[in-house]
Design a protein that fits this description.
Elements: H1 6-10, H2 25-42
């Protein structure tokens, strides 16, 4: 997810070596859900 980071994906706090996120955790979750949903719909 562009602008996101590893810590926001799992919601477990900062991770050593992780880059700063350019988007909020909620924005990253929303984008993740959208991308997975689009992928699932293509699998029909």
């Amino acid at each position: 997810i562009k602008g996101g980071n590893h810590a926001h994906f799992g919601m477990y706090g900062e991770q050593k070596g992780d880059n700063a996120s350019l988007i909020t955790a909620k924005a990253q979750r929303d984008e993740t859900v959208k991308v997975i949903e689009e992928w699932l719909l293509k699998q029909r």
